Amino acid sequence: MSQRKTSRNGSHATPGWVPGWALGPILFALAVWLHASGLLTPIPHAATPPFDHAALSTAPRRQILGDPPTLKINDFDRTCMDCHKIFKTPTDKPRPLNQHKNIHMDHGPNVKCSTCHDWDDRNRLVRPDGVSIPFTKVVDQCGQCHVRIRYDWGYGIHGRTNGYWDPKSGPQERRICTECHDPHNPKSPAMDPISPLPGPHTLRLTNPHGEHDQ
Amino acid sequence: MSSSEPKLDRRSFFRASLGAVGGLAALAAALEPLKDFDRSDLTLDQFLQKHYKEMSAEDMQKVLDRIEKEVEKRYDVRPEIKDVKPRDGVEFVYALNLGACIGCRRCVHACVAENNQSRDPEIQYIRVLEMPRGSIDIEEGNHHYERPKVPSPDHFYMPIQCQQCENPPCVKVCPVEATWQEPDGLTVIDYDWCIGCRYCEAACPYWARRFNFTEPSIPKDDLNPNMSYLSNRPRKQGVMEKCHFCLHRTREGRMPACLEVCPVGARKFGNIRDPESEVSKILKNKHVFVLKQEVGTHPRFFYYFDEDYGPAIHGEGR
Question: Which residues of A touch B260 (CB under 8 A)?
Fold first, then answer.
């Protein structure tokens, strides 16, 4: 019971087994130890790694062809027909190409150019039902097979809509198929992988020991 | 010396005068901050400012002028600060396609740039969880993924930000009514009214609120001068902030910054009261779900998977 009584000098601040005069040296020693051990130094928060702010562009990921499609060739604007009305393509069979070697064709059963391209007017596309459409209406072309996605795109569920959510306040920019997907080689997953930007470094989210719970 | 007349002896005189000097010094020290009252961070105008809902149009104009001056003094940029009011017949809803999201964190940084968050330490409203495919277990989610390229074929990605709840727990716990829900569904914060108690941060089941532990630092060149009172004007140390669906943009009809930058079109935003809007079509046609439905917050932020396509469903070799 004497343990629970106050110390000799009558102080109530310390339990009975610690003499009052010892409290100062104990706390001082604790302070010295904490200071020396480095436990008191604040954990530095990691600065956000720098990244290229061009990544925050809202532009579409692919450049698309207009109507008529124009290409810069030796600083001159050329349309497809500028060449194709002179150089007739001999046949529509799948074969190694002499031109357009950058095109890697991998789109399921669509192996012929004429599945999509208008054989008589190379500035335009052709739908399976034979109707010729400009490159800017490529949605109608893709939607012939990808019907469900075409419906979703029409509602605005699939694809990107930039600009104004309220069409009365300003213009809406609807991205069309080829502004994201490569029509010759539509990949799966549909998008090219890209590098992620830096993750969170807010105080509570910082992982000070650099461990990643992968 | 006669003992009958009261006499101040030497000891009590020193004791009393020491006490008096000490008391005066303490009083002077206590009043010291008042000397700098007009030069300190808190000006008299700020001190006497009324609550947002009690301010008249003229009051608000005065406050906006004052904040513009303060921002110009600090950042050398003359901002345009507005007080954009909610529109009638508009209720904002967000929808996010988890089948399309690739976890590139473009939205996170477009948000930081748009909303003038502190850069060091960086405050991010949106956090992207990387989760293994096959379940939606947020406990398995990883904020700190670093990969050369995303998406990883074994994971899917789930961005989380303020869910703009219909029944917001953060608003209920605020002891000073510094945060409230607006008629268009946005829960907003008056940064001049917040006392920094962080009750709202603790109450939010989505971990959507952020606290300015230090004085926010924004490089002068990076300041977005298009500001509004309730959204992206610069904050001070000791106040809460959070996503507000970019209300300075969306109340003028524009899309939020996180949506515009999304390279895959996973984010959809609009007016749920308009049956022709994109979000209405999504809620009608897709299987949507909300996060932590069981806590009864009724979020205005919906997640959905596309049944027919998307990397999270099909993966490679489709």
Answer: 58, 162
B110: contact with A, CB 8 A cutoff: yes
ipTM of model: 0.77
pLDDT in tens, B131-168: 998 888 888 888 888 888 888 888 899 999 999 999 99
The answer to which of A31-45, B70-84, B270-284 has the lowest mean pLDDT is A31-45
Q: Does B109 touch chain A if contact means CB atoms closer than 8 Å?
A: yes
| pLDDT of A202 above 60 | no
Same domain, B134 and B222: yes
The count of structural domains within chain A is 1
Residue B79 tokens read as: 């901002």
Residue A162 to residue B150, Cβ atoms within 8 A: no
Q: Pick left, alpha or beta for residue B259 (phi over 0 → left; psi -120 to 50 → alpha; otherwise beta).
A: alpha
Query: In this structure, are residues A152 and A75 in contact, taking their beta carbons and an 8 Å threshold?
Result: no
B201 touches chain A (CB under 8 A): no
- Rounded Cα–Cα distance for residues B313 and B308 (Å): 8
Residue A125 within any structural domain of the chain: yes
Confidence tier at B310 by pLDDT (50, 70, 90): very low
Structural domain harbouring A153: 63-88+110-158
Percent of chain B clearing pLDDT 90 (strictly above): 66
In DSSP notation, B76-103 reads S---EEE-PPPPTT--EEEEEETTT---
**Residue B23 falls inside a structural domain:** no
Both B200 and B279 in a single domain?
Answer: yes
Select from B127, B153, B260 the Cβ nearest to the Cβ of A162: B260
Kindly report the nearest CA distance between residue A22 and chain B, in angstroms.
30
B232 is in which domain, residue-wise?
Answer: 92-314
Residues B75 and B107 in one domain: no
